[in-house]
Structures are given as structure tokens and as C-alpha cells.
Design goal:
14 helices; single chain; 352 residues; 83% helix; mainly alpha
Amino acid sequence: MTLSKPPKKRLWIWFLWLGLFYAIWGFLVFVQGRGEMVKEHWPIALAMAVGSYAAGSTPMGGGTVGFPILVLLFDQPAQLGRDFSFAVQSIGMTSASIFILARRQPLAWAMLKGAAIGSLLGTPLGILFVAPLIPALWIKLLFAVIWGSFGLLHLRRIGEIASHEGMTDFDERWDFRVGLAVGVLAGAMVVSVTGVGIDMVLYTVLVLLCRADLKIAIPTSVLIMAFTSVVGMATKFAFTGVQPGVFDNWIAAAPIVALGAPLGAFMVDLIGRKPTLFFVAVLCVIQLVWALHEERAALGIKGMTISLAAVGLFLFGFERLRVYGAVLVGERCARRGDARREDAPTGEERRT
């Protein structure tokens, strides 16, 4: 039997991208005199060193760190946190995506294509018609609840999620339709409001419904968040504009995330995904507790109860998705077993 060679890597493409990006960034900073702006916003650059690493090594975009840093720690408007997430991920996640593609890593292509088309439809619609209806307080809480629930899911199921190998192959058309639904709904209802989230949703579907290997699910989530961030920024520039202060923070953080996210994608192969996922899951839970504590006066008993109930609802949804995935995998395996038995030769056929 002849073993097929692994796909040839083309890392020169990524280095070309880096050269182009840093040339443009250098022009903006040194030729146009924005050095003081970069120095003034060094704290967000430092924070995004961690955020970009998490973006490349986990299913959580760099905005997962950038949003709470700006909104909870620096007390900036939630709308600024959302727009900054779009902006910084358009560089960091794009850089990580080019790195992943250049390394020829395996991806869930059918679901990714569906999610990209869905995001192309859902994200602009959400930015234009859904996001303006959501008050700043509820933007904070939506972010905190979704990522807190996501963290709790991993703290409970990290062993199972990390043990998956390969990916259950249902049907490319089915995968495409599921990805399309994820793209439309997550783009319109989550990403447009918080600036992040479609990566987490697609990843969750891959690991819970399709039992996908983390080596497939995480790179796929990185690519969809990069694409969605670019769509989000394009929509912002074309129709709504971006919040004041986004560019100031972006110019400081961009050179960090351009390297940090690909570094995360590379280093996680050396140290393993389970420790990194566990660390980020703990951060997600901490930011949930922090957000509820910071906004306890504005929320009151009723708001706190609704927020905690929402966490429980998300966890229930994750668990139902996991159970449904187990049923689908069982049915798929049963059908394959029946097909093997039907194709197997009889005793008489073996003898002849």
C-alpha cells in the first residue's frame, strides 16, 4: 500500500501577508506620526497579547478578551468593545486563518462554507436592525452569559470534548445547511451585538453535534470568525460608522495580534489544547461573575435572576445538542454497520 504524502505547506504566503501588514502599519505609525497614540494605548496591546493567543488556540475570538478588558476593566462603552472586537479580529483572526490555510490544516469545509454564506447575510442584517435595539447593559450581559455558559460547558465536558478524533461524516449537504443556519442566526443575533460569537457557536455544533476533533473544530472556528469580522467591519464602514476610539486602540493592538493569533495556532500543537481550553474556560466564568457583580445595582434581583436563568438555559441547550449528536452518531454508525453486513459476501460466495 502506498502512503499518501502530507499536503505541502506554503508558509511563504503567511510571511508575505505579514510583510504587507507591517509595512502598512509602519506607514500609519511612523510616517503619519501616530507613535504617541500607540504608546498611550499600550494596556490594550498588552491585554491583546493574551487575547490573540487565545484567538488562535481556542474557539474564542480575540474580542473575547478585548471586549471585557475595554468594557469591564477600562469602563468603556459596550458599543466600543463590540466595534473594537470586529476591528482587532479582522487582523488577528485573518492572520491566524492565513497561517492555518498555509499549513494545510484539516477543516470542516462543508459546514464552514455554509456558515460563511449565512454570516454574509446575517451579520449585516443584525448590525443594521438588531444591534441598535439592544441597550449597552444588555450587550454586556449577553456577552457575559454566553461566554460564561461556554466556559461552564468546557469545565464539565472538557475530557469528552478533547477525546474526539476525526469527525462524524453525515452528509455534505446536511453539513452545509447546518452551517448556513449557524451563520445566519449567530451573525444576526450574537455577532452583530457583541462583535464575537459565531466561532463559538460553530465550534459547539462541531464538537457536540458532529463529535469533531479539536484539530478540526478550532481551526474551522478561527476561519469563520475572521471572515465574519471582515464582513462586520465592511458593514460598519459602509453604513453605520465605528465608535470613537476604535482606531486608537486598534493601532496599538494590531501588531501584537497579527503574530499572537498564529502563535496560538502553532503553540497549541506543542502543549495540547486541553490545558489552553481549561484556562480560557476559567476566564470565561470569571468574567461572568465579574460582570454580574459590576452591574448588580443596575440589574437588581430581577435582572440577576434573568441572567442566571439564561446561563442555565444555554447549558440546557448545550446538553440537548450533545444528546442529539450522540443519537445522530449512533444512527450513522448503525447504518454503516448494516451497509457492511449487506455488502459482505455469503459463505457460499466466499468459497467460490
